[in-house]
UniProtKB/TrEMBL annotation:
Pfam families: Glyco_hydro_1. The keyword RNA-binding does not apply. The keyword Chloroplast does not apply. This is 6-phospho-beta-glucosidase.
Length: 479
């Protein structure tokens, strides 16, 4: 038996999802249209995610996977019962902004939307599962794009603050753990997905993106302020898509490039955690002739309202080179480009598999910020096959998670303070990057295919019982 005893008492084992990838019911009970509701599967999805939508209305002859997803909206009781059977201590989910304020700038919130999340939280608390809530997870109301240009416009700060205060007041007795923006650094890589940004011809992309980033950073700080005022016992964090960037060689040019790539992501968290713009960001603005428009009081807002913890996703490390020949040998990994690391294997989707990278990344973040960490996404997307007896023997997923848990335990032994771990997609859901269902992460299989066909029936995989044992042993039994 492989045993480790590094995970602290009260460690928040669980799973993580996003409203737009599981809920479905995309216009039900008054919900408004969001960015993700305009993302089809296939190559067109990537073009739109990068900020080039051909329209801000869904087409009748196009399949949009978010519209029904796995229909958590009507099946949440069954799904939460399965999470409880695994012994979840926490469940990370997001609130859909457009369920609460369908247009984003509505005068009054949508009561049906508020009640839905009341019902979900009540169901979780019935099983003593701690809700971990992401306030904005890649789903800007489309009306805010059409009317205001989304986060290009300072008015979004006010709309977001009103939204956050509404949900803090409503759920103050039910939710302790909050996060302001999911993978906030994705704004630079997938502007439409991360912030509803649509580029206009002739715009300076860096100017647009970093001004939008400033608006999100101020909004995040105001959410922290509101949360601390309304729910004094709450913990509110930020969240980044993380993964250490390795230099391909010891050439100082490669090392410097890796540092710059790390800082591209750390920029957001530096502001949210330390309360001010770092010097390297100010230099970047000068070198690229960028002028970030700030209002009076912005610097004070950022300085006085820093986050309580750092949430992060970790799927893979990255590798960078300054050699043009080596740069030709890229992985097909997640959104971030990466040179192929000759020491590591890749998943079916070309994502680097690097268990030690989660230990390195956790140490890097803790050394930098000295704040508690929360691993809020990690997992393996794979094509699952039924065995002859009808079971799903996903040993590959178990092996992946086992190795990452071992290294997470090592990080804790290193002295890194980690609140919990919520694996991505405890139940199969729509892939954010590809819109597919065949790229499965879950311990629970959902009968749904890439074309939206299937019964939506839930079925336990082999990993279901394995993760149940891991949680019951607080991570000490990984066999």
């Amino acid at each position: 038996m492989k045993t480790i005893s590094k995970f602290p008492d009260g460690f928040l084992w669980g799973g993580a999802t996003a409203a737009n990838q599981i809920e479905g019911a995309y216009l039900e009970d008054g919900k408004g249209l969001t960015t993700v509701d305009l993302l089809p599967t296939g190559k067109e999805r990537f073009k739109i995610m990068e900020g080039y939508p051909s329209t801000l209305e869904p087409h009748k002859d196009v399949y949009y996977p978010s519209h029904q997803a796995i229909d958590f909206y009507h099946n949440y009781k069954e799904d939460i019962a399965l999470f409880a059977e695994m012994g979840f201590k926490s469940f990370r989910l997001s609130i859909s902004w457009a369920r609460i304020f369908p247009n984003g700038d509505d005068r009054e919130p949508n009561e049906a939307g508020l009640q839905f999340y009341d019902n979900v939280f009540d169901e979780l608390l019935k099983y003593n599962i701690e809700p971990v809530v992401t306030i904005a997870h890649f789903d800007v109301p489309v009306h805010l794009i059409k009317e205001y240009g989304s986060w290009k416009n300072r008015k979004l700060v006010d709309f977001y603050e009103k939204y956050t205060r509404t949900i803090f007041e409503r759920y103050k007795d039910k939710v302790t753990y909050w996060m302001t923006f999911n993978e906030i650094n994705m704004l630079l890589h997938l502007p439409f997905t991360g912030a509803g940004i649509v580029f206009e011809e002739g715009e300076d992309k860096n100017q647009v993106l970093y001004q939008a980033a400033h608006h999100q950073l101020v909004a995040s700080a105001l959410a922290v302020k509101a949360c601390h005022e309304i729910i004094p016992n709450a913990q509110i964090g930020c969240m980044l898509a993380a993964g250490k960037v390795y230099p391909y060689t010891s050439n100082p040019d490669d090392v410097l490039k890796a540092m710059e790539k790390d800082r591209e992501s750390f920029f957001f968290i530096d502001v949210q955690s330390r309360g001010k713009y770092p010097g390297y960001a100010k230099r970047f603005f000068r070198d690229n002739d960028l002028t970030i428009k700030m209002e009076d009081g912005d610097e004070e807002i950022l300085r006085n309202n820093t986050v309580d913890y750092i949430g992060f996703s970790y799927y893979a490390s990255r590798c960078i080179s300054t050699d043009p020949e080596i740069l030709k040998n890229q992985t097909a990994g997640n959104v971030f480009g990466s040179v192929k690391n000759p020491y590591l294997k890749t998943s079916e989707w070309g994502w680097t598999i690097d268990p030690k990278g989660i230990r390195i990344t956790a140490n890097q973040l803790y050394d930098r910020y000295q704040k508690p960490l929360f691993v809020v996404e990690n997992g393996l997307g794979a094509v699952d096959q039924f065995a002859s007896d009808g079971s799903i023997q996903d040993d590959y997923r178990i092996d992946y998670l086992r190795q990452h848990f071992e290294q997470l335990g090592e990080a804790i032994e290193d002295g890194v303070e980690i609140i919990g771990y919520t694996s991505w997609g405890p139940i199969d859901l729509v892939s954010a990057s590809t819109g597919e269902m065949k790229k499965r992460y879950g311990y629970i299989y959902v009968d749904r295919d890439n074309e939206g066909k299937g019964s939506l029936q839930r079925k336990r995989k082999k990993s279901f019982d394995w993760y149940k044992k891991v949680i019951a042993s607080n991570g000490s039994d990984l066999d």
